[in-house]
Amino acid sequence: MEDDAPVIYGLEFQIHIIDFDDENNIISKNVLLHQVGEIWHISASPADRGVLATCYNNTSDSKVLTCAAVWRMPKELEPGSHESPDDSSSTAHTLELLCHLDNTAHGSMACVAWEPTGDGKKVISLADNHILLWDLQESSSQAVLASSASLEGKGQLKFTSGRWSPHHNCTQVATANDTAVRGWDTRSMSQIYCIENAHGQLVRDLDFNPNKQYYLASCGDDCKVKFWDTRNVTEPVKTLEEHSHWVWSVRYNHSHDQLVLTGSSDSRVILSNMVSISSEPFGHLVDDDDLSDQEERRPEEKSQEPPQDSVIATYEEHEDSVYAVDWSSADPWLFASLSYDGRLVINRVPRALKYHILL
Amino acid sequence: MAAAAAGPGPGSGPGDSPEGPEAEAPERRRKAHGMLKLYYGLSEGEAAGRPAGPDPLDPTDLNGAHFDPEVYLDKVCLRGVRVGGPGPGYIALPHHPSDFVAGLRRECPLAQLMDSETDMVRQIRALDSDMQTLVYENYNKFISATDTIRKMKNDFRKMEDEMDRLATNMAVITDFSARISATLQDRHERITKLAGVHALLRKLQFLFELPSRLTKCVELGAYGQAVRYQGRARAVLQQYQHLPSFRAIQDDCQVITARLAQQLRQRFREGGSGAPEQAECVELLLALGEPAEELCEEFLAHARGRLEEELRSLEAELGPSPPAPDVLEFTDRGGSGFVGGLCQVAAAYQELFAAQGPAGAERLAAFARELGGRYFALVERRLAQEQGGGDNSLLVRALDRFHRRLRAPGALLAAAGLAEAATEIVERVARERLGHHLQGLRAAFLGCLTDVRQALAAPRLAGKEGPGLAELLANVASSILSHIKASLAAVHLFTAKEVSFSNKPYFRGEFCSQGVREGLIVGFIRSMCQTAQSFCDSPGEKGGATPPALLLLLSRLCLDYETATISYVLTLTDEQFLVQDQSPVTPVSTLCAEARETARRLLTHYVKVQGLVISQMLRKSVETRDWLSTLEPRNVRAVMKRVVEDTTAIDVQVGLLYEEGVRKAQSSDSSKRTFSVYSSSRQQGRYAPSYTPSAPMDTNLLSNIQKLFSERIDVFSPVEFNKVSVLTGIIKISLKTLLECVRLRTFGRFGLQQVQVDCHFLQLYLWRFVADEELVHLLLDEVVASAALRCPDPVPMEPSVVEVICERG
């Protein structure tokens, strides 16, 4: 597989596909038109790399409704395809609409989340105070509302963000509304847990630890990033307070979950090393049975060094608020961040840390 | 001379002429006479040589051969001058008497010479008659003296005869006496022998009577007497026990003695009597030769019984219910009852069983240790009940007494370690008191906070102007300080000179430095800082469980502590407790740093909380409004006015406690500033919606270039201790929120214009609060620019119209 990192970000009415060639350090771009409206959320299908879902504003009669749809991009632009588009900047391709997630009865869509390990048939979408589970049928050309649940309570409750847990056979979804984080079981569509007042103010984003069950990171307007064990929701396991303004996005590294990326409207991206709560707390897991006695000593000696949670790096390349950060799905040491001023920054994990983790 | 004067008493009377000293006494006269002679140039020796009778050679004899009228005259004249009064002859006093007589003869007229002569004759006569009188007197005295001597001679002769007779008589008597004693000698010896026999018999009788006597004594209860008898007889009986009769007596005695001992023991065991009687019993038993070891065992057992009685009564006083007598009474009772008893026992024991040696002393020490331990346990229980009380003086007095009372047994029984144990208890209590005071101070601090909360909450209900924050701050500060001082004073009692334990090393060193200074004062200040900081960490960040004014007040309080109070309080403590201990103590600077950090955190939190309040208002106002279908703006929205009002209120609030601070120099027409920046060149590029791929690049470039020239705004940056910095922080947070919220919405044309109006309004009023007005401009520009970017139909309002609307509203 080519060492390519497809990163997708949305701007008004356009979807750009950025190809980053790590070996040659070349960035190339393809533009897809998204004619139905401005995009507020975008997520790619884990099963089919040509399929993605967007949440977009549909403005009509001085009313804004955020809708969601599933799209397929043209074959030749699919990431990983070898044929390099000749002059990408000159031609704009069009997305092929697969289906709408009909939300007329439920209100504005806040986000769409794919089932992480399935066959790309299940999608969760959050619309106002409803959580909707869709079944995509007939190669995603038809979306059927499988089940739904809604949040009842006083005031106007609105989901802001949601993530699908990769654990427990993908039966759990976490959502955020106002200051609370809730867990849902997708089989019964009932609430499993609820972290009231997870943050002092609005919760902006969530992410599940990909390697460690029950572990969940959240971030919000109180400038904090909190790590939770969903079995005990009274206290966060850990709290980071490195940002000086709202934290908009938090992401675990897909393979080394001690690496946590956060983006904030103080226009900084911070890469933290949360060794103490990662699935590999001492840098690397050693299987005792496979080792001879002598070799067994060494990891013990090494483990004497206390694991320190620390900020690895603060990236200040952005001049305005950073609204999205994500890791490359192809290279675990690569990540990108996107800010308000339209700047996309691709960074690597520092080499020293990389070797420290690997060796 | 005194004897002579007394002797011839009758003779001296008439002769004593007052004229001259010569007449006083014969001897005196003779002496005077001698002097007279000396005066006339004759030695006394010559005069003595010829005692009586006219001497032809006597110059004083007028008829003598050597009489020299010249000399005589001279002398007489001189004498006249000296003795007599002024006479006609004394007109001029020549230097020499002969000169005088010669002068007299030469110079005086005859009549005057004649007068002199008659005068002289008169004097001579007077002298003669004087002399005669003297001679008579002397003669009489001499006669009487002779008579006396004669009589004495006779008497002596008679006495001699008497003495001789007496001597003969005495010889006769001696003779008789010797004879009598010779005759009596024989009888005397017999009598002596008889007396000896008599004594022996009496002793024997005593011995024979001994059993009955002992029995009687025992019956009468005169044990002391009985023991004495027994003691007297024992040796004799021991010696003669081989004689059957004595043996019988001894046997009898032994039987009785055994009974006696038994009775004594009985009495001893019954133990109704007090300690002195007990001691007496033991003494008697010892005298009876009972085994000492057993006795001291019993003695101690008995003493234990009594002391345990005391302990029980003390324990009863403790009781399950709250103790009726106060702690002073309790320790008094314990001191007099138990400790006194213990002292008595120990003293009696040491007196009685001194012969026991170290083993006995060890036994006593163990005894005292055990009972003392129980006593201490009781005292500690009682003192523990006292821990809650606030009165230190009573406690200290009680401890003092307790400690003092235990000194005596401590000195008596050094091995038992009672004094040390007592000191330990006192130390423990002192430590606990310190802890108690620390708790008290903390509670007082929390109480103050509650009061402040109430004061802050109450006036809002009443609707009138509440007490000023400065006033509240002063109240809190003074109240805490007075509590600290009261605690110091209360704790100081432990180190007062008159308290018996104050000179123990613990109270001189560790108590002062580690206990009072570190534990109490430093501990309190630390806990105060922690309490204050806990307000920052409280989970109620959202609800604002802590009123912001309280945060502000606490922050100022901590800052004041940093600047003055901490060093004052520590100096006060050091002075009062004269810390001599060398152990390391927390320096003032560390504490100050902690207080400052607390103050800073509190103030930062205050900024966050207040910023959040305003942010929420702004956010709600942006989120709930339908910006697409809004009408053309006519007014500034009410929420903006509210924001300005609230900011002004915060400004006033902070101004009560913090100084103004410095702000950057600003242009005079800052309020007149218009929206030139975003309404002109910069926005043109952005507004033009472009679908060509190159256009966004230009936009980015423009905005980035713009940003290159403006400093990055750190929204939640640390604040400084002044009003401007605080307000800047709050406004920064609020405006940044506004910015982010605006970016999440889509605006219609009039929505954009409304934002324009609102921002201009904010600009008009907020610049004055912040340190750098550029900051406000920058953020507001950003807001309007973002709104424009979020608007599909961006037609900005004319700046002049905006101004008009703002000035109207």
From TrEMBL, chain A:
<dbReference type="InterPro" id="IPR019775">
    <property type="entry name" value="WD40_repeat_CS"/>
</dbReference>
<dbReference type="Pfam" id="PF23609">
    <property type="entry name" value="Beta-prop_EIPR1"/>
</dbReference>
<feature type="compositionally biased region" description="Basic and acidic residues">
    <location>
        <begin position="294"/>
        <end position="304"/>
    </location>
</feature>
<comment type="subunit">
    <text>Interacts with two multisubunit tethering complexes: EARP composed of VPS50, VPS51, VPS52 and VPS53 subunits and GARP complex composed of VPS51, VPS52, VPS53 and VPS54 subunits. Interacts with SNAP29.</text>
</comment>
<feature type="domain" description="EIPR1-like beta-propeller">
    <location>
        <begin position="13"/>
        <end position="271"/>
    </location>
</feature>
<comment type="similarity">
    <text>Belongs to the WD repeat EIPR1 family.</text>
</comment>
<dbReference type="Pfam" id="PF00400">
    <property type="entry name" value="WD40"/>
</dbReference>
<keyword id="KW-0853">WD repeat</keyword>
<dbReference type="InterPro" id="IPR001680">
    <property type="entry name" value="WD40_rpt"/>
</dbReference>
<dbReference type="GO" id="GO:0051049">
    <property type="term" value="P:regulation of transport"/>
</dbReference>
<feature type="region of interest" description="Disordered">
    <location>
        <begin position="281"/>
        <end position="311"/>
    </location>
</feature>
<dbReference type="InterPro" id="IPR040323">
    <property type="entry name" value="EIPR1"/>
</dbReference>
<comment type="function">
    <text>Acts as a component of endosomal retrieval machinery that is involved in protein transport from early endosomes to either recycling endosomes or the trans-Golgi network. Mediates the recruitment of Golgi-associated retrograde protein (GARP) complex to the trans-Golgi network and controls early endosome-to-Golgi transport of internalized protein. Promotes the recycling of internalized transferrin receptor (TFRC) to the plasma membrane through interaction with endosome-associated recycling protein (EARP) complex.</text>
</comment>
<protein>
    <recommendedName>
        <fullName>EARP and GARP complex-interacting protein 1</fullName>
    </recommendedName>
</protein>
<dbReference type="GO" id="GO:0060341">
    <property type="term" value="P:regulation of cellular localization"/>
</dbReference>
<feature type="repeat" description="WD">
    <location>
        <begin position="196"/>
        <end position="232"/>
    </location>
</feature>
<keyword id="KW-0677">Repeat</keyword>
<dbReference type="InterPro" id="IPR059104">
    <property type="entry name" value="Beta-prop_EIPR1-like"/>
</dbReference>
<dbReference type="InterPro" id="IPR015943">
    <property type="entry name" value="WD40/YVTN_repeat-like_dom_sf"/>
</dbReference>
Automatic annotation (TrEMBL), chain B:
<comment type="subunit">
    <text>Component of the Golgi-associated retrograde protein (GARP) complex. Component of the endosome-associated retrograde protein (EARP) complex.</text>
</comment>
<feature type="region of interest" description="Disordered">
    <location>
        <begin position="1"/>
        <end position="30"/>
    </location>
</feature>
<dbReference type="GO" id="GO:0006914">
    <property type="term" value="P:autophagy"/>
</dbReference>
<dbReference type="GO" id="GO:0032456">
    <property type="term" value="P:endocytic recycling"/>
</dbReference>
<dbReference type="InterPro" id="IPR014812">
    <property type="entry name" value="Vps51"/>
</dbReference>
<dbReference type="InterPro" id="IPR016159">
    <property type="entry name" value="Cullin_repeat-like_dom_sf"/>
</dbReference>
<dbReference type="GO" id="GO:0000938">
    <property type="term" value="C:GARP complex"/>
</dbReference>
<protein>
    <recommendedName>
        <fullName>Vacuolar protein sorting-associated protein 51 homolog</fullName>
    </recommendedName>
</protein>
<keyword id="KW-0333">Golgi apparatus</keyword>
<dbReference type="GO" id="GO:0005730">
    <property type="term" value="C:nucleolus"/>
</dbReference>
<dbReference type="GO" id="GO:0016020">
    <property type="term" value="C:membrane"/>
</dbReference>
<dbReference type="GO" id="GO:0015031">
    <property type="term" value="P:protein transport"/>
</dbReference>
<keyword id="KW-0445">Lipid transport</keyword>
<dbReference type="Pfam" id="PF08700">
    <property type="entry name" value="VPS51_Exo84_N"/>
</dbReference>
<dbReference type="GO" id="GO:0090119">
    <property type="term" value="P:vesicle-mediated cholesterol transport"/>
</dbReference>
<keyword id="KW-0967">Endosome</keyword>
<comment type="function">
    <text>Involved in retrograde transport from early and late endosomes to the late Golgi. The GARP complex is required for the maintenance of protein retrieval from endosomes to the TGN, acid hydrolase sorting, lysosome function, endosomal cholesterol traffic and autophagy. Acts as component of the EARP complex that is involved in endocytic recycling.</text>
</comment>
<keyword id="KW-0653">Protein transport</keyword>
<comment type="similarity">
    <text>Belongs to the VPS51 family.</text>
</comment>
<dbReference type="GO" id="GO:0048193">
    <property type="term" value="P:Golgi vesicle transport"/>
</dbReference>
<dbReference type="GO" id="GO:0048854">
    <property type="term" value="P:brain morphogenesis"/>
</dbReference>
<keyword id="KW-0175">Coiled coil</keyword>
